[in-house]
Amino acid sequence: MSTLPPRAGRRCHNSVNPLHSCVYFSPDLGKEFAELGVDDPSAAYFAARGAALGAVGAGAVTATFYNFNPELVARHLPAVWSVVPPRAALDARLRAADSTLRRVLGEGAVTSPGMAEAAGLALRAAEACTRHARPLYAAHADLPVPDEPHLAFWHAATLLREHRGDAHLAALLAAGLDPVEAMVSHTATGKGMTPRWVLATRGWRRTDWDAAVERLRARGLLDDAGELTDAGTALRADLEGATDRMDAAPYEHLGAEGVERLTELARGYLFAAAAAGAFPGGLVGKG
Fold first, then answer.
1. Most C-beta atoms within 10 A of its C-beta, which of 50, 79, 88, 138?
2. pLDDT the model gives residue 73
3. How much is the mean pLDDT over the chain?
4. Torsion-angle region of 203 (φ positive above 0: left; ψ -120 to 50: alpha; else: beta)
5. Is the peptide bond before 5 cis (omega within 30 degrees of 0)?
6. Cα 31–Cα 60–Cα 40 angle in degrees, nearest 5
7. CA torsion angle for 112, 116, 117, 119 (degrees, to 10)?
8. How many whole angstroms separate alpha carbon 61 and alpha carbon 73?
9. Side-chain-side CA neighbours of residue 77 (13 Å)
10. Whole-Å CA distances, 201 to 117, 135, 136, 218
11. pLDDT (tens digit, 9 = 90+) per residue, 80-119?
């Protein structure tokens, strides 16, 4: 049985994870990769996030990222590694994390005792992450922890994000949701990416989206207006609950007091980052 309040781990994740993700929206990441010869945003993203796996081909990244069109991934992998080897991609990503966090949080926050505390708490939580059946987490767990507290915090946020992410993919598979169906149903909750953003970044066509809508309607998960039915709402709730259970260990290890404190610190940094424009407008919603 859990020693934590209901959904405490999920709330903590939802506060920490965006501070990992903001680097992938940052112009600093594009700048770092452009200087290395990679101008395409998709190529830079696949290289930056996939480099921990090594110089893999499109298959490994398609499998571990889940919701990208394999054709888009194959357009850039493995070719990108001939321009930016994985070690160089990881170094570029860390430089982008450094400049991004300094820009959106400010030097005072980056060098504050609170940042060092947040890093310590997040790293302690990550001690209880497990590698089995979690390939993207396991690859990142092999990377060294940076010395500077804000980068150590970002590294720990990455570990916690990929640990939960790998678990969520298992839950999606168990629920019988393919990549596009997963995104359509998440968007229908109002908490997922807008269709416009999905189609612009994930390589799918509008016909792919519309076909997924029809499949979900046939399963009774969406109604004629594209809204979740009661069965669809229950499925999405079950998905998050299953992910919570598979991702409980880090937060149980940290304990209720530690989880509450990490959530408090991370939320403060998240609000500051959002106010500084760390995330694009129109990213989340049904429209």
1. 50
2. 98
3. 97
4. left
5. no
6. 25
7. 130
8. 7
9. 28
10. 35, 23, 20, 27
11. 999 999 999 999 999 999 999 999 999 999 999 999 999 9
Q: Which two tokens stand for residue 182?
A: 């997963």
Q: Which amino acid is at 77?
A: L
- pLDDT(1) > 80: no
First to last CA, the chain: 39
Q: Which residues pair with 284 in a beta bridge?
A: 193
Using CA atoms, how far apart are residues 231 and 259, in angstroms rounded to an integer? 32
Rounded Cα distance between 202 and 209, Å, is 11
Sequence-ordered alpha helix ranges (H) in 106-226: 107-110, 113-126, 135-141, 149-175, 179-188, 195-201, 206-218
What are 2's two structure tokens?
Answer: 């859990």
Q: Tell me the two tokens of residue 123.
A: 């790293």
